[in-house]
Amino acid sequence: MVVGGSGVDTVVRVDSLPVPLADSVDVSAIREWPGHTGGNVALGCRALGLGVKFLDFVGEDWTGEQVRARLAEGGVDFEALPSPSGTRRAVSLVERTGRRMSFQDAREPAGLRMPRSFYLPHLRAARHVHLSVVDFARHLFDDIAEAGVPVSTDLQDWDGLSEHQRDFALRSDLVFLSAAGAGGRIASVMKEILREGRAEVVVATAGAGGSYLMTREGSRTPRPVAAEVPPAPVVDSNGAGDAYVCGFLYGRLAGRGLDECAALGARAGAHACTGQGPEALIGRDDLLARSR
C-alpha cells in the first residue's frame, strides 16, 4: 500500500544548471506528465508485478484527471479523496546529462487528515506500507504500528535537520533518502536515524555515485553499493530514486538479502534514467535478468 505523493510534473530541458539569469530562455518542448514520488513508486511496483493499493488526495481538476488516467493505465488500484487545494504540481529543470533541479509546491492545507475508515481496511490487508512525506501520512503511523505492518518511507533530500521529515525518519522500519540533502554529513544522519528511531535499514542514494546501506546490527559506517551503468543513454534522472525504492522493495518482499535488494534498486534506478519521467519502468524479467 502506497500513501500520498501523486501529482503532475512539468519538465523543462535546459543546457546547464544553474540557469543563467535572463528575462527569457529558449528551451526545447516543455513536457508534462503525472508522476511525483508516490505515483512513481506505485507505478514502478506494479510494473514489477506487485499488487498495489494507492491512497491519496487528488484535486477534481484536469491535472487530477491526468493522474487518475496514468495510474489506471499502469494497472494501479488507486483510490482518492478530493483535495480541497487541487492536485499537486512540480516543475523540474533537467540539463543535458540528466541532472535536475525540482520545485515542489506545498499546496495542501494544514490539518488535512485521511479518515481512518478510508485507509484502515486497506492497511489491514497490506503486506507492506510505503508512506510519502506528505503531512497527512504521518498520522497513519499509530495505526500501522497497531496492525504490525512493516513501513518504509523516502525522505528525499532530507538534511537531517528539518522537522517535517523527522517523524517519518524515526517511525519507519526501512528509510530511504538522498545523500544530496546532507552532503558530507550523510553518514551521521544515517546513524542518527538508526540510533534514535525504529529503522532496521537506512539507504542513501547518490545517483551515479551509487548508494549507501546501513543497518542496525551492521557496520558503524555506511556500506557503499555500486551504481549500475544504464542500459541506454541517460535522458532524465527524474524518478530514478523512486525506481530504486521499487527495486529494493521488490527484493525485500521476495525475501532477498539486503545487498541483493540494493543491487536491484540500483538496476531499477539506472533503467529509469533512460526515459523521460515515468516512461522507463523496468519490468520483473529485466530486473531479475542478472539475479537468477
Order of helices and strands: EEEHEHEEEHEHEHEHHEEEHHH
Helix count, DSSP H or I runs of 4 or more residues? 10
How many E-type strands? 13
Main β-sheet, spatial strand arrangement: 5-4-1-8-9-10-11-12-13
Shape: globular
Arithmetic mean pLDDT: 92
Largest sheet: 9 strands, mixed
Unreliable residue stretches: none
Helix content: 25-40%
Give the class from helix and strand content and strand pairing: alpha/beta
Task: Kindly list the characteristics that best describe this protein.
292 residues; 33% helix; single chain; 4-stranded mixed β-sheet; 10 helices; 9-stranded mixed β-sheet; 21% strand; alpha/beta; 13 strands
Q: What does it look like?
A:
The relative contact order is 0.14. This protein starts with a strand and ends with a helix. The chain has 10 helices and 13 strands. The chain has 292 residues and is α/β, with parallel strands linked by helices. It is 33% helix and 21% strand. Helix 1 packs across helix 8 and helix 8 packs antiparallel against helix 9. The protein is globular. The model has no long low-confidence stretch (mean pLDDT 92).
